[in-house]
Specification:
Helix content is 6%, strand content 38%. It is mainly beta.
């Protein structure tokens, strides 16, 4: 009990401290990625006191391996993996069959970082032990430490328990840290805090280090006061200098976000987004974009013109709902996908040459993941974009005017 309370307190202090650094953070592409390669790769670890490398798809207690799949391990007490987290054919994940006394299972060098820079550490993990299997629930609880090469602690956090499931459900664990001055190389050290072997097994994939930058604050144009015109004087009236009176400008009415449901799709009015000079930079990043991965699934360069977008459910209609952000502004909220399109239009011109459309899955429907077909028509050219999004990953389409 005391041990549990201790780790809970450490988790709260470390994790909350690191998460506080993510406010208004824009993540650049990873500078370091550890995806464990494919086939018989060189070990990423240095010598570990409590773990050894195995070369099978079902490593025993105190062993780890790099494998592309696993099936039927330990009388089917483990989940069956037909592919790794990214579903790359032949790619590896790291399988860890926990040591009965816990211990460090990953200790590797991270190169290519910049000093005094904020980074996001992220890793995808999953408890491989099937719920109601042959072992009592004994979830892994993993400490992540970022160290200098001489062993000084830079940052650290604890994942909390990796829960058991009956289906594959990878989860992203991440935190933010700042590199020390004069440092470009660090050590990534990961340790399982849960003692005991049975039920305390897990897989890990796609470790990334992404630089975090602050967006440039948007500059609002100054308001120009409007003065009433002078009234023309009658000839019989002596002219006097009128008092100058300033009139407060009328308040600017803000646009409301557009909400669309699938029942309204048939009669929806066409929406033309306003033109804004230059590339818009919002004062803050919406939370659904900030906390999820945002891979670019399509890049389009086009001549100026009107861009028409139609969004359909791609496959069986299973209750998928999505929200759509245009340049980080919500334009469609929780719309149901069906065989009737969600339709909207965007003007691409010199005043607004850059457009980022991010589709956020609000749910996964009855058949995960959330899949859709986006058809973009501009200047008589048609682009089909097949999109798959989840509770961890959005999908981004980028459109730029031709240079």
């Amino acid at each position: 009990m005391r041990r549990t309370l201790f780790f809970a307190c450490v988790f709260c202090v470390l994790f909350c401290d690191l998460q506080a650094q993510q406010s208004d953070c824009v993540l650049l592409p990873p500078v370091v990625t550890i995806d464990f390669g494919a086939g018989n790769i060189q070990d990423v670890n240095t010598i570990l006191p409590k773990y050894q490398r195995d070369y099978t798809t079902c490593p025993n207690d105190g062993f780890y391996s790099y494998a592309s799949h696993t099936s039927g391990c330990f009388n089917a007490d483990w989940l069956t993996f037909n592919g790794v987290h990214t579903s790359n054919a032949g790619g590896n994940m790291m399988l860890v069959n926990a040591s009965e006394t816990g211990g460090v299972f990953l200790n590797t060098t991270i190169n290519g970082l910049k000093e005094n820079t904020t980074y996001q550490f992220a890793a995808w993990m999953i408890n491989v032990c099937r719920i109601n299997g042959g072992c009592s629930p004994l979830p892994p609880n993993i400490s992540v430490r970022i160290l200098t090469t001489d062993g000084r602690r830079v940052a650290g956090f604890i994942t909390g328990q990796l829960a058991q499931n009956d289906v594959l459900h990878w989860k992203k664990y991440f935190a933010f840290f700042v590199t020390p001055p004069g440092t470009s190389m660090l050590i990534l050290n990961m340790e399982d805090n849960t003692p005991g072997g049975c039920g305390n097994d897990f897989a890990m994939d796609d470790i990334t280090f992404c630089e975090c930058i602050k967006p440039i604050a948007s500059i609002q144009p100054a308001r120009v006061p409007v003065l009433k015109p002078l009234v023309k004087q009658s000839p019989s009236i002596i002219k006097t200098e009128p008092k100058k009176t300033s009139v407060k400008p009328a308040p600017v009415k803000k646009d409301s976000p557009l909400v669309i449901t699938k029942e309204q799709v048939a009669n929806i009015p066409v929406m033309i987004l306003p033109s804004i000079k230059g590339k818009p930079v919002p004062s803050s990043i919406p939370q659904p974009i900030l906390i999820r991965e945002n891979p670019v699934v399509k890049q389009i360069e086009t001549a100026p013109g009107k861009m028409m977008i139609d969004l359909y459910d791609n496959g069986e209609i299973d209750g998928d709902t999505v929200s759509i952000y245009h340049n980080n502004e919500l334009i469609i909220s929780r719309a149901g996908l069906s065989d009737n399109p969600i339709h909207f239009e965007i003007k691409v011109d010199a005043m607004q040459p850059h457009h980022e459309l991010v589709m956020v899955a609000n749910n996964l429907g009855s058949i995960p993941p959330n899949t859709s077909l986006m058809i973009i028509t501009v200047n008589d050219k048609r682009y089909e974009v097949h999109i798959s999004s989840s509770e961890q990953t959005n999908a981004k389409v980028v459109v730029d005017i031709e240079k």
